[in-house]
Structure formats: C-alpha cells, structure tokens
Design goal:
- By secondary structure, the chain is α/β, with parallel strands linked by helices.
- Helix content is about 35%, strand content about 15%.
- It is built from 6 helices and 6 strands; from the N terminus they run E-H-E-H-E-H-E-H-E-H-E-H.
- A 6-stranded mixed sheet has the order 3-2-1-4-6-5, sandwiched between helices.
- Helix 1 links the parallel strand 1 and strand 2.
- It starts with 9 loop residues before the first strand and ends with a helix.
Amino acid sequence: MNPVNTSCELSIIIPVIGKNYISENLFYQIHDVLKSLLTHYEIFVITDHPTHEISQILQNRHVEIISFSSSKYGTALQAGFDRAIGDFIIVMDADQKNLTFLRYLWEARFTADVVIASRYISGGKAHMPLLRTFFSKVLNTVFSRGLDLQIRDMSCGIRLYKTQVIKK
C-alpha cells in the first residue's frame, strides 16, 4: 500500500452504491492477490452510504472510503478516477468471490487501453438469472454492433484501464 502522493502501479476502485454491506473477506483476498503481483497499490471504496459498519470493516485494511452524494454509477467511478494515482486502474464489484481475475487483468495490462474481464468468453461466468443473462447478451450485441466495437461484454463491471487514457 502506498502513502498518498507517491508512485503507485495500481489503483483498485470498488463502487458500493445503494448498499450498506461489504465483505471483510474481500479485502483479505485483494491484498493476498496483489501482494503476489506487485508492491505499490491503493484501494478505494466509493459509497453513497458511508455507514459505521462499512467504516469498521475497512478500518486497518488500507482502504480509503470516498463518499459521494449521488447514486449514479458513473459519478462513483469519476470520484475514484479523480483520486487514483496508479498507472493502471481496476474497477470491480464489491460482491466478488473469486479474485483470480485480478491476476489475469494485471498480466494483460499492456495489451489494450481497456481490458474487460468478460463473463461471456470461454471460462467466464455470469451468476445471474437466465432472463437477465439473455437480455445482457442481447444488449451487449446491439451496442457493440451499433457502436462498431469488437467488444462482447460492454456492461461488465470488472475492467482494467490505463490511467493515462482515463485522465485524458
């Protein structure tokens, strides 16, 4: 974990919107995976409900809480992007169970400006009701064709960005 205003390789942004629960175990797992990959990282939890419970869970976990007054996902991300000093930024959901994707994203960091941990590729998983999975795939297909992008999973909440691309 880096003190503020020093070099940092990776910033992790975890939006927690409209919820007041976050798993303490998540941060043990994040630290375990990241310690095996690199030495300099920071973690931000962006929340519109900065409860005492969340503060207690995150205390002594080397996690900074950023609270904001909007319940919009994009506003939460922007708050994290504005604060991040890492060369790369990973955005992830707070309800992740298996964090092996962190290693894969990190290993792919130089392959593109944005790397998406897609649910819809070989080995990917989507733990959603069947109807939601169907509509997600349809909407992703429509948007990727409509925007002429070769992206299968534009709505995935797990991504790695090159910070310089975001900051522009």
